[in-house]
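Students often ask why inverse folding is considered easier than folding. One informal answer: many sequences map to the same fold, so there is more than one right answer. In these notes we will look at a single instance of the problem. The structure comes first.
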């Protein structure tokens, strides 16, 4: 193995960086519970709680590994090649968080593609293969307890796990971009603008996770005798969890962008809203009502002129309409002749 700066030093830096990213995960989780609380789907609430708990467990394992290296085995040069069980467990926890995130985005691909299993199934199969590779790596790390032996015997399994993770990230990102672009209307509408925003966000989240995983894979292939790859590996689970939680939290912000300025902020009953709109439209069609006072014998009398109301009803036959109008005028005259003086 390499010197202390490339092994224990890398573990320490990786644990500190993962702690900062863990704070981001906690912030996103708190934002989720504040925005949605118990109003969201139960599966989303369970997923957020699970990711938050797995992230906390992962951070505790990373710092427990740092304690073992720097405190329990201080001054022991043989520790550079030693794999504590806490390190092995971080690999499995990272794989579980990665699988949850991949399944979350695969579900989006499934919905956007019109519930196509032909497009979603390969993503899920590769994601499960990544999980199996990580579990095998964890088991071998606990059994061998040596980096040298792990690299020589089953290093290809760890390589396959990181490669599958990167491949799934690329597949999900490309699939979402293509499906979103197919949903465009071709006009400068709010929908197209929203699609552009979601596409950009998809690219950003997909690039962050895939690049970090790819860099960790490159360090593992180029420098398998030091632990720089493991320092980067500590951050992978944090980035996956953050991308999932941030995507969930962005839903309300995206919905606000689709609301026109004249739209109601609070929900309204559709029938009541339609009736209100019809009433307001009918008021514009009303003819003016004139109140005139006639001074007859010194006593003013209120006279109400004809008010024309435009009613949206079926037209009556012409011969019946003429008789109906005459009868309405006669009754109107009789009623106003009986008005008492004011």
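Output (designed amino acids):
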């Amino acid at each position: 193995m390499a010197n202390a700066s490339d092994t224990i030093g890398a573990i320490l830096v990786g644990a500190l960086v993962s702690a900062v990213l863990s704070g981001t995960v906690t912030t996103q989780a708190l934002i989720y519970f504040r925005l949605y609380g118990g109003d969201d789907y139960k599966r989303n609430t369970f997923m957020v709680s699970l990711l938050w708990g797995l992230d906390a467990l992962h951070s505790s394992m990373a710092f427990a590994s740092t304690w073992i290296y720097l405190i329990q085995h201080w001054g022991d040069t043989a520790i550079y090649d030693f794999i504590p069980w806490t390190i092995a467990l971080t690999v499995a926890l990272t794989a579980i968080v990665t699988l949850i995130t991949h399944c979350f985005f695969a579900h989006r691909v499934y919905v956007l593609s019109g519930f196509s299993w032909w497009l979603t199934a390969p993503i899920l199969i590769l994601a499960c293969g990544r999980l199996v590779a990580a579990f095998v790596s964890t088991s071998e790390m606990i059994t061998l307890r040596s980096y040298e032996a792990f690299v020589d015997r089953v290093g290809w399994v760890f390589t396959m796990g990181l490669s599958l993770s990167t491949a799934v990230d690329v597949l999900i990102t490309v699939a979402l971009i293509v499906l979103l672009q197919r949903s465009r209307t071709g006009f400068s509408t709010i929908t197209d603008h929203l699609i552009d925003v979601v596409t950009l966000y998809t690219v950003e989240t997909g690039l962050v996770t895939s690049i970090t995983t790819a860099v960790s894979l490159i360090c593992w292939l180029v420098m398998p005798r030091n632990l720089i790859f493991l320092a980067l590996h500590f951050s992978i689970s944090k980035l996956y969890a953050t991308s999932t939680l941030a995507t969930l939290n962005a839903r309300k912000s995206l919905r606000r962008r689709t609301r026109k300025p004249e739209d109601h902020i609070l929900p309204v009953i559709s029938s009541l809203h339609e009736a209100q709109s019809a009433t307001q439209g009918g008021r514009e069609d009303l003819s003016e009502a004139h109140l005139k006072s006639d001074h007859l014998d010194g006593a003013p009398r209120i006279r109400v002129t004809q008010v024309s109301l435009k009613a949206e009803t079926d037209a009556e036959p012409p011969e019946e309409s003429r008789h109906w109008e005459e009868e309405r005028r006669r009754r109107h005259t009789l009623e106003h002749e009986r008005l008492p003086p004011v």
